[in-house]
Amino acid sequence: MKNRIPIEFRPAIVEDKSRVGDWEADTIIGKNHHQAIVTLVDRNSKFTLMKKVVAKQASKSCNRCNHPFIEAYSSSYTYDYK
After folding, report:
1. pLDDT tens digits, one per residue of 8-66
2. pTM
């Protein structure tokens, strides 16, 4: 992902978990690495969305997890990078 910022440099307001709209994305890899699920969790409310995807990296597949709540309340995204 271009122009990514390391997690230790994310803004204090995101770290504080005081607002809705700061999302964390992660990937759950299935048996034999044939399936994956992307999870999106709002850091404040803990509202969680999950979607089965073909790509196994959250940063590549998160854009497929469109939802009206995310579109209305998005301030930042944090992905795991390996």
Report:
1. 888 888 888 999 888 888 888 888 888 888 888 999 999 898 888 775 554 555 555 56
2. 0.70
3-class secondary structure, 39: strand
Per the CB < 8 A criterion, the answer to whether 49 and 17 are in contact is: no
Q: What is the b/e burial string over 10-43, where b = at least 16 CB atoms within 10 angstroms of the residue's CB?
A: eeeebeeeeebbbbbbebeeeeeeeebebbbbbb
Cα separation, 18 vs 16, whole angstroms: 5
State the Cα–Cα distance between residues 67 and 69, nearest whole angstrom: 5
